[in-house]
Design brief:
With 808 residues, this protein is α/β, with parallel strands linked by helices. The protein is 34% helix and 24% strand. It has a seven-stranded parallel β-sheet, with helices on both faces. A six-stranded parallel β-sheet has the order 19-29-28-20-27-26, with helices on both faces. 42% of the residues are buried. The structure holds adenosine-5'-diphosphate (ADP) and zinc ion (2 copies).
């Protein structure tokens, strides 16, 4: 019988922790609740053994799962993530298990040594609890210390009930370090419940209202959620009366996912020859039960989704499971409704609108095998399905697949590793595959499948590039819209067709400048210019959320000549209104899409023909299929070309291709007007010609020359601190370490100031590490982490981002 277990805890430390089992016997992969410093934490059991640790082991507090929460395959996947991305195993497992809702947090306090000393001092009648507090407050502080003394921590509610202390007073004592706060955890069942009315045998007389209710229930097979019945607008007493007479029974059930009525486009087509060929390849890959990766490179509107769904249906019919990953913005309620219609209750749909409790509920459904098709964003790759046959990653190039906090994993790459362990097939799909993925396709590592045509042989839109420098020379005016774009929009309005206009920058004016002294108004926490938001009448930082009133005079020199420069989507909308007053205009950006459903509402209005024009940021560029749009105008999408990031051209090419792909998806052909100040840039040229292969070739040559992915593995090592000297000190120390080490085959660039030199109060420096050998890169990073631990440099000050997508 093992006496101990090792537990991976969600703390930034590279080790597992040993606990004594006591009477509990968890299985490997189960969650347990354990004491850790002043906290109680839930962690995952990684091993059971009887090797006593050097220091006395504490007992585990309770076992949260009877069966493993993570099966062997997922445990192994977690270990891989931990190794590859250099992230603590416990933090990885926490990310893999969306069950936090089952562990409730409660504020609790305990007394510290300093608190005990203060208590004794005052009890001896000597110097009392000297402070700026009133005598009454001092008395309360004394009672708090007295109450906590000898207790092993107490919940806030208990402390306050016993001492009448306010939270403010308690927090004041925390600041004085007399007491410490700890967050305790207690488990609870967070599965969302839904009340269902069941119709029993009806005897006796019914009044008119009761009749309506009974008939409604009978018409739905005798069972309906209570919330649906409340929609009937009958008095509450009607249902209550029926329940009292036992004609209707109410039961509680775990709520499955449900979507309110979305209109679905009928899917009554048969797959094209190209689609069938791709599907046949995937079906064969799945049937072989061997690991494989296929990359579908399919132009916009080529019907990739129909192929995914057919492949997933085949998996379902074979009694196996499939996961579909979509980018953050891809899982609109419409997409979810379509999946629900295709797969019914067999599908679990993990979208961002779910509460933590709902997420946990879906997790359990998948775990029990009730849902064998899982659709969701990044973390759905960890769904606990059994008998995994297929993982599809839609829009595989989308940056939202990379998690921007520890563990900084990439959902696509984790999907591939999971499939490798499970002997499953992976399908990556995109109109603009990431360079790394297409490279793997070219080298035969992935099977490259092409969908060259749009469905029903619809043409790709014609793209016209407008050189805005020439436009200025010819008109003598610096206009937002070129003459060409204005003419095209006018034509659409006259013909009753629709247009979208992209400006990939939100707010009203991105720069607030003083004309007297030349200063721009900057964020207090970041080295970033604040953006003017006219509707809200505020200046906002788009990086940290800081906001302030719009200044009437310059904060630096006091002059009144404060100017708002440049254009964001908010101003674009205003200008469009001005230019086309008769048009109905909608806007999509992070300011108009704030609540669940906002995004969908605007797109539905466009689809229903209630809007003529839609303006917005990159949000308008992807994940939807609106047939009335025959014109896409790009007012600004090339700012990114100026970013000091080796992926800037690729990002721009992708965005332009995606947004152009929104035009002409219905029976009417589409057209794109692309305004730019860099018409000769290859990203723009190739996007205008729909030439992915051309872009790929050129970009690949540049990457090779510059030693960037896919020819090297890259990691970004970010040093950050609120104290400039500290950031510099750490960066210097790490730089010297690299110099001494001189790892062969590793290029170290830096330390240099990060392009965002200050962000969220932190000063930032970075190193970019490149190596043709991933093993070498990882070995160096691991050695560095060891070194940082020895030198006690806190984990928060050094961020290791393996396969970083952004070097800003
Ligand atoms: P993609 O993701 O490749 O841009 P979608 O999967 O969104 O394209 O498909 C575009 C549209 O074409 C959708 O409305 C879809 O229902 C429709 N579609 C898919 N396959 C066919 C087909 N074989 N014939 C007709 N329409 C199709
Ligand atoms: Zn000024
Ligand atoms: Zn800021």
């Amino acid at each position: 019988m093992p006496e101990f277990c090792d537990v991976a805890l969600p703390v930034p430390l590279e080790t597992v922790f040993t606990y004594r089992l006591g009477s509990a016997t968890p299985v490997r992969g189960a969650r347990v609740l354990v004491p850790f410093r002043t906290l109680r934490l839930a962690g995952v059991v990684t091993a059971l053994h009887d090797r006593a640790p050097k220091v006395a082991a504490k007992n585990i507090l309770s076992v949260l799962d009877d069966e493993p929460a993570l099966d062997d395959g997922l445990m192994k996947l977690g270990e891989w993530i931990s190794q590859y991305y250099l992230a603590p195993l416990g933090e990885v497992y926490r990310t893999m298990l969306p069950l936090a809702a089952e562990v409730r947090r409660a504020r609790a306090y305990c007394i510290t040594a300093a608190g005990q000393e203060a208590l004794y001092r005052s009890a001896e009648g000597g110097s009392s609890l000297r402070s700026r507090r009133t005598p009454a407050e001092q008395m309360t502080e004394y009672s708090v210390l007295d109450y906590l003394n000898g207790r092993d921590g107490a919940r806030e509610a208990g402390v306050r009930a016993a001492t009448k202390a306010s939270r403010r007073l308690l927090e004041g004592m925390v600041r004085k370090k007399w007491i410490a706060r700890e967050d305790t955890a207690a488990t609870r069942d967070a599965r969302p419940q839904r009340r269902i009315a069941l119709l029993r045998e009806v005897t006796g007389k019914l009044n008119a209202n009761q009749k309506v209710l009974v008939e409604t229930l009978a018409a739905s097979g005798g069972r309906l959620p209570v919330e649906v019945l409340s929609g009937l607008e009958l008095p509450k007493s009607t249902l209550a009366g029926l329940v009292r007479r036992k004609l209707v029974e109410i039961v509680e059930e775990e709520a499955p996912f449900s979507i309110s009525g979305m209109a679905l486009r009928p899917e009554d087509f048969s797959l094209s020859a190209e689609q069938r060929a791709v599907l046949a390849h995937i079906d064969a890959a799945v049937a072989s039960k061997k690991f494989s990766v296929s990359l579908i490179h399919g132009v916009t509107g080529s019907g990739k989704t129909a192929v995914y769904l057919a492949a997933m249906q085949a998996v379902l019919d074979a009694g196996r499971s499939a996961i579909l990953l979509v980018p953050e913005i891809g899982l609109t309620p419409a997409a979810a409704a379509r999946l629900q219609a295709t797969f019914g209750e067999q599908a679990a749909i993990l979208h961002s609108g779910l509460t933590a409790g709902e997420r946990a509920g879906q997790w359990h459904r998948i775990r029990r095998g009730e849902a064998r098709i899982v659709v969701g964003t990044r973390s759905a790759v960890f769904a606990p399905v059994a008998n995994l046959a297929l993982i599809v990653v839609d829009e595989e190039q989308d940056p939202s697949y990379k998690q921007e906090e520890t563990p900084r994993y990439h959902g696509r790459d984790v999907a591939i590793m999971r499939a490798k362990h499970a002997g499953a097939a992976v399908v990556l799909g995109s109109a603009t595959p990431a360079l790394e993925s297409f490279y793997n396709g070219q080298r035969g590592k992935y099977a490259l499948l092409e969908l060259r045509e749009r469905v029903e042989q619809r043409p790709l839109p014609e793209v016209e590039v407008v050189d805005m420098r020439a436009e200025f020379r010819e008109t003598g005016e610096d206009q937002l819209f070129s003459r060409k774009l204005v003419a095209e929009i006018r034509e659409r309005l006259e013909r009753g067709e629709q247009a979208m206009i992209l400006l990939n920058r939100r707010g009203y004016s991105p720069v607030v400048l003083c004309r007297a002294c030349g200063e721009t108004v900057q964020c207090q926490n970041c080295a970033i210019a604040l953006t003017h938001h006219k509707g809200r009448n505020r200046l906002l930082c788009h990086y940290c959320g800081y906001q302030q009133a719009v200044p009437e005079t310059c904060p630096k020199c006091g002059s009144e000549y404060v100017q708002f420069l440049g254009t964001g989507s908010e101003k674009l909308e205003e200008r469009i209104h001005g230019a086309f007053p008769q048009a109905r205009v909608g806007r999509l950006d992070r300011d108009t899409v704030r609540a669940r459903g906002d995004f969908e509402r605007v797109l539905n209005a466009l689809d229903a023909g209630e809007l003529d024009l839609l303006v917005g940021t990159q949000m308008i560029a992807k994940g939807h299929d609106i047939h009335g749009v025959t014109l896409v105008g790009v007012v600004g999408a090339d700012f990114a070309l100026g970013f000091p990031d080796f992926r800037a051209a690729e990002r721009t090419f992708q965005l332009l291709t995606q947004v152009a792909g929104r035009a002409g998806r219905g029976t009417m052909p589409g057209r794109v007007v692309l305004q730019t100040y860099y018409p000769e840039h290859y990203a723009i040229q190739f996007a205008a010609r729909h030439d992915y292969a051309g872009f790929y070739e050129k970009e690949l040559r540049y990457r090779k020359w510059m030693h960037y992915p896919p020819f090297t593995a890259v990691a970004n090592l970010l040093i950050r601190s609120e104290k400039l000297e500290e950031a510099l000190g750490y960066a210097g120390a790490i730089g010297r370490w690299f110099e001494k080490r001189r790892a062969p085959g590793l290029r170290v660039l830096g330390p240099s100031a990060a392009p965002l030199t200050r962000l969220k109060r932190d000063y930032r420096y970075h190193f970019v590490l490149k190596s043709e050998s991933r093993e070498r890169l990882n070995a160096t990073l691991r050695a560095l982490q060891q070194r940082l631990a020895e030198q006690k440099i806190p984990a928060r000050n050094v961020v290791v981002d393996v396969d970083a997508l952004s070097l800003l």
